[in-house]
Amino acid sequence: MTTPTFLLACLWVVAAALVAMLPMRWQFVPGLALLLGAPVLIWRLAVEYGWPAALLAVLAVVSMFRRPLQYYARRALGRGTEASE
After folding, report:
1. Can you tell me the distance from the alpha carbon of 57 to that of 9, in angstroms, rounded to the nearest whole number?
2. Please, which residues have CB within 8 angstroms of residue 60's CB and are 6 or more apart in sequence?
3. Cα torsion for 26, 16, 60, 73, to the nearest 10°?
4. What pTM did the predictor assign?
5. Coil, helix or strand at residue 11
């Protein structure tokens, strides 16, 4: 049985893929909205489908947003914002 949360999760994945195809200067606002909405969606998936579904969702979000998450983690820890390659 498909729940509204599952449908929203599928739409979130499609929206993230579409945002990734945008030019970099247009990705910030929709990407930030997707990143801020992800915890709520993950929480709902955990409630309805259990922790394995939530873990898979967390791994997907971290995979898709690894660069912005690294940037904000460095910034929060006061390590500067220069990229380390």
Report:
1. 9
2. 13
3. 20
4. 0.78
5. helix
Q: What is the rounded distance in angstroms from the CA atom of residue 24 to the CA atom of residue 5?
A: 29
Token pair in block for residue 25: 């200067």
Q: What is the spatial distance between Cα 40 and Cα 61, in angstroms, rounded to a whole number? A: 12
Distance CA 7, CA 14 (A): 11
Mean per-residue pLDDT, 12-25: 93
Cα 31 to Cα 9: distance, rounded to the nearest angstrom: 15
1 burial via Cβ count (<10 Å: 0-12, 13-18, 19+): exposed
